[in-house]
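Amino acid chain
________________
===
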Amino acid sequence: MSSTQQTPQRVALVTGAAQGIGLATAIELLQDGRKVVLTDLRLPDLSALPESLRANAFAQLLDVSDPAACQKLVAAIREQHGSLDILVNNAGISLKNAAGQSNGILDVGLDEVQKMLDINVIAMLRLCQLVLPGMKDKRWGRIVNVSSLAGRGKSIVAGPAYMLTKSAVLGLSRSIASEMGEFGITTNCVAPGRILTQMAMQAGEEVNQRYAQQIPVKRIGEPAEVGAAIRYLCSEAAGFTNGAVIDVNGGFLMG
């Protein structure tokens, strides 16, 4: 690229962005000069962003399991901003039982599995299908799907339903990466380990402390550390990183 050419301002959609990894990712992308649409089941509070970044941030309600709402939002973003160049599929759920734990293989219900599939996988696939045609037309796009350490190997606290869905995210992402790479569209995953989010706090402080002792860096991760990895995958420089998984887990998973 010559010095007289300027990279256009890319437009990003981040799901599950009211808090945690999604909010941290939005901040990272805004710092990288992107316009960012933050979505969640509750309206993201833009006052949580540094004031200097708010001019390029836009908050929208979105239930990712609602096909009509997803279609309407993607169309609205394209109409308002001219394009939708970056998709970060972060929204996800991990259902717990009355004791605050994940149901094991003999106790998990198919309705529970289906609900997690609908949010963690099917909604992700739907949003990818909605944004890919526009990316293909522009011959540029970045998709980052948030998987989990639970989809990469044995999990200490996640149950079979969550592990199943987060493993499926990896397969879905590889499929898109292989089919869409020739059009300048990269599709990658981050697989966070134990991160200080509301979801992780469901297990309780004692569980997290025990977990931290099994991590080589001896601590739980911060949302911003995952956001930084996603920022790279969404960057102009990441055009040759495709179908990859970045493990952000303090060294818990090696090999």
The beta strands are 11-14, 35-40, 57-61, 86-89, 141-146, 185-192, 245-248.
